[in-house]
């Protein structure tokens, strides 16, 4: 499914965080040191920094009491406080929070977080993901955790009848992991499994086209069944105007070779890309000629130019174009859309589909008409290489791996540690089984209860925000409030479709995925094909609203407009974003703002088009729409002022239109979470953290928010994200959101308490 409104976006796959029991063990040493010496680590850090002049940070709100009874000294609180202090800029007291809050909060984070050669960027969420990767690594490399090894919280509560299915599921995970780790076998196979796919393409799309079959359609279909988008990207998903019905959608591919449409305008980069295509595919298939391989890149460039820009791709009012199958097929008759959809849908009758870009489909026909068949064959071969090169170990693929690394801002020869690749591989292909073991180690009933409370608090608060939005008329406000009440919140992990607590349910879900401990490439194909079959099996059935779009270890969250649901996997509900054992302002500041962010998506530039039942319809009055657009334009202009160095040395500005929905959600989410926490704090006072007497609790709420976005990036990665990511750079998300927060400006006594832009 498409996670519209995802907190991080598709460009940033993230995975889960560290368990509380691990954290407690790690901090036991810290606590023992405190007990013996009478000094906390926090106090030592503070004394080491006491040469810094006290200037910009002014405590506002409840002062930190002298009595130690109101200061939380548990290991969890000591750990949380130390993280904040380590992340602060070394000269944080000299920095005005009202002008550079991101540097104040994150300067220390950057000093102690260098990027590895295999990383293009990293942020707090990356650290959370890598902590959980370690946890998952230990699970996958260890023995089956039988009943005697279960933690006090086990979602399984395993019965004797289900243990065998659970162990079989675990063995499937372990086999996939072991096959990925077996680099000797992978190296011995060299390019043999990839060459088999390439030969299959040549057989399906020979240079001499037989009259009896549309080989173009058959080749697009062949690749689509492996999960590879070539020429078009068909999918089965909820119909936006009838969200309980599954419909076929046809989009242009998200990318065509280079990571963004704009990168094809860089002549020097295109020339390097041509060299890499010629060297790589030329060695794999020696009969390929240089002129044809150069033409493949030119072909990609034409496809990219014909496709809509990223902002238009994400605009549902432009991509929702219902057509009959015949009308859609007539746009690009060369492809034979009917054949492709019929095969993917296992013969399900399809009379209506959604074409995201009719213009692209029409232009595609013209491009195909003028393209030599040899170029098309080489194009399909190159799509397969791009899709499957990561599963092959061969010197022949080194040129492309180096090129991809440089393009992503990584060191040319770098590769992640093998076990990291393999944990991700298992999560991608068998994510729900892995989720079952992750939840047992890294989540608790208390965590789920606290997460539900935060989300419910923010929903209640957002109702008040809607009532106070004087730019909305009464009719629209009433329907918007109903929409909030209808929002489904999914916290932690799924208990249906599949139920990860039930081994039999998991076994049935993955029954067709055959995994061997020594066939890594074949396993990858099995996983990809299963994902495609699973998606298209929904055709002809009602939408399954119990399905989740992210596995449980994922460090991310999303709002799904047709489902009118907000989803928070357990992976994002980890330290330092979320913790039941620390003062609530930290969890409300980080996780609460994430929850508010996702809920705000229900009323952003995309979400506002969907009503309380998830139907795409115009339910806002014209007066309210006009008032919204006037306020939204402020966000567009504000974020367009943020920039980075571009590939040509000129400043490359953030696309305020592309990032509009996320920027609105950041502002609305932060405000809603702050106000929700303040209401809770009146019911139950929060303790203070040790060593942070320079900050009030209100200020620490915002420090916790900004800590989540502390990060660093290489220039190449930053450039690609400007072009493709609907999220602003993380530093800009801090600065822009703080500028738009009245509560922040009041808490830090800024000269002007008026927000730059405001909606909710």
From TrEMBL:
Domain Peptidase M13 N-terminal: 97-494
Any one of the GO CC terms: plasma membrane
Single annotated GO MF: metalloendopeptidase activity
Transmembrane segments: 28-48
Keywords, ordered alphabetically: Hydrolase, Membrane, Metal-binding, Metalloprotease, Protease, Transmembrane, Transmembrane helix, Zinc
SUPFAM superfamilies registered for this protein in UniProt: Metalloproteases ('zincins'), catalytic domain
Peptidase M13 C-terminal domain ranges (all copies): 556-755
Pfam families assigned to the protein according to its UniProt record, in alphabetical order: Peptidase_M13 (PF01431), Peptidase_M13_N (PF05649)
GO BP, sorted A to Z: protein processing
Cofactor entry: Zn(2+)
Gene3D superfamilies named in the record: Collagenase (Catalytic Domain), Neutral endopeptidase , domain2
Record-linked CDD domains: M13 (cd08662)
InterPro entries for the chain: MetalloPept_cat_dom_sf (IPR024079), Peptidase_M13 (IPR000718), Peptidase_M13_C (IPR018497), Peptidase_M13_dom_2 (IPR042089), Peptidase_M13_N (IPR008753)
Family: Belongs to the peptidase M13 family.
Name of protein: Metalloendopeptidase
Organism, scientific name: Rhypophila decipiens
Lineage, highest ranks first: Eukaryota, Fungi, Dikarya, Ascomycota, Pezizomycotina
């Amino acid at each position: 499914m498409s996670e519209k409104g995802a907190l991080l976006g598709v460009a940033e796959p993230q995975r889960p965080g560290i368990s509380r029991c691990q954290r407690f063990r790690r901090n036991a040493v810290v606590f023992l040191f405190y007990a013996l010496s009478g000094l906390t680590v926090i106090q030592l850090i503070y004394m080491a920094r006491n040469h810094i002049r006290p200037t910009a940070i002014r405590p506002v709100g409840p002062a930190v009491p002298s009595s130690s009874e109101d200061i939380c000294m548990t290991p969890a609180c000591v750990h949380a406080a130390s993280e904040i202090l380590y992340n602060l800029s070394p000269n944080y007291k000299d920095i005005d929070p009202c002008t550079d809050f991101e540097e104040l909060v994150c300067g220390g984070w950057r000093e102690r977080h260098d990027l590895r050669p295999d990383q293009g960027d990293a942020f707090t969420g990356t650290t959370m993901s890598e902590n959980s990767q370690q946890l998952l690594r230990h699970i996958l490399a260890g023995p089956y955790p039988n009943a005697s090894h279960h933690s006090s919280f086990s979602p399984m509560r395993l019965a004797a009848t289900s243990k065998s299915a659970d162990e079989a599921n675990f063995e499937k995970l372990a086999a996939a992991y072991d096959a990925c780790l077996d680099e000797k076998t992978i190296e011995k196979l060299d390019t043999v499994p990839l060459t088999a796919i390439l030969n299959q393409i040549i057989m399906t799309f020979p240079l001499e086209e037989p009259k009896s079959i549309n080989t173009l359609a058959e080749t697009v279909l062949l690749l689509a069944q492996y999960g590879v988008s070539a020429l078009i990207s068909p999918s089965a998903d909820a119909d936006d105007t009838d969200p309980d019905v599954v419909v076929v959608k046809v989009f242009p591919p998200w990318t065509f070779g280079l990571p963004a449409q704009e990168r094809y305008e860089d002549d020097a980069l295109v020339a390097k890309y041509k060299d890499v295509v010629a060297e790589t595919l030329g060695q794999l298939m020696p009969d390929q000629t240089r002129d044809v391989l150069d033409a493949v890149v030119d072909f990609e460039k034409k496809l990219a130019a014909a496709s809509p820009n990223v902002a238009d791709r994400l605009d549902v009012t432009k991509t929702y174009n219902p057509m009959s199958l015949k009308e859609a097929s007539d746009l690009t008759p060369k492809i034979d859309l009917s054949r492709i959809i019929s095969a993917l849908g296992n013969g399900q009758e399809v009379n209506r589909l959604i074409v995201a870009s009719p213009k692209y489909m029409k232009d595609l026909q013209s491009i195909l008409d003028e393209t030599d068949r040899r170029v098309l064959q080489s194009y399909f071969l190159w799509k397969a290489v791009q899709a499957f090169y990561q599963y092959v170990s061969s010197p022949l693929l080194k040129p492309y791996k180096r090129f991809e690394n440089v393009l992503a801002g990584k060191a040319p020869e770098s590769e992640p540690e093998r076990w990291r690749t393999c944990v991700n591989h298992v999560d991608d292909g068998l994510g729900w089984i892995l989720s079952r073991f992750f939840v047992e180690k890294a989540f608790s009933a208390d965590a789920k209860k606290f997460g539900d409370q935060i989300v419910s608090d923010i929903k209640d608060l957002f109702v008040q925000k809607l009532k106070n939005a004087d730019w909305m008329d009464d009719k629209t406000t009433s329907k918007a409030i109903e929409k909030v009440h209808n929002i489904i919140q999914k916290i932690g992990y799924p208990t249906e479709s599949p139920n990860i607590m039930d081994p039999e349910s998991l076994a049935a879900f993955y029954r067709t995925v055959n995994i061997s401990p020594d066939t890594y490439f074949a396993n990858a194909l099995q996983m990809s094909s299963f994902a495609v079959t699973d998606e298209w099996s929904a055709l002809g059935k009602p939408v399954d609203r119990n399905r989740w779009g992210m596995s449980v270890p994922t460090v991310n969250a999303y709002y799904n407009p047709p489902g009118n649901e907000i989803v928070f996997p357990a992976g994002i509900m980890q330290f330092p974003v979320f913790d039941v054992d620390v003062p609530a302002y930290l969890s409300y500041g980080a996780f609460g703002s994430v929850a508010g962010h996702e809920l705000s998506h229900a009323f952003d530039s995309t979400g506002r088009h969907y009503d309380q039942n998830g139907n795409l319809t115009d339910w806002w009055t014209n007066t309210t729409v006009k008032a919204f657009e006037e306020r939204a334009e402020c966000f567009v202009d504000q974020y367009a002022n943020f920039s980075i160095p571009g590939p040509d040395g000129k400043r490359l500005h953030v696309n305020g239109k592309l990032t509009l929905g996320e920027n609105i959600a950041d502002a609305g989410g932060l405000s809603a979470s702050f106000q929700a926490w303040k209401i809770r704090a009146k019911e139950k006072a929060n303790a203070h953290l040790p060593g942070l007497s320079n900050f009030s609790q209100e200020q620490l709420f915002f420090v916790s928010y900004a800590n989540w976005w502390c990060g660093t990036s290489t220039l190449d990665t930053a450039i690609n994200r400007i072009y493709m990511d609907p999220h602003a750079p993380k530093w800009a998300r801090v600065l822009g959101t703080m500028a738009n927060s009245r509560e922040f400006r009041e808490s830090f006594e800024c000269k002007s308490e008026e927000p730059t832009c405001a909606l909710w």
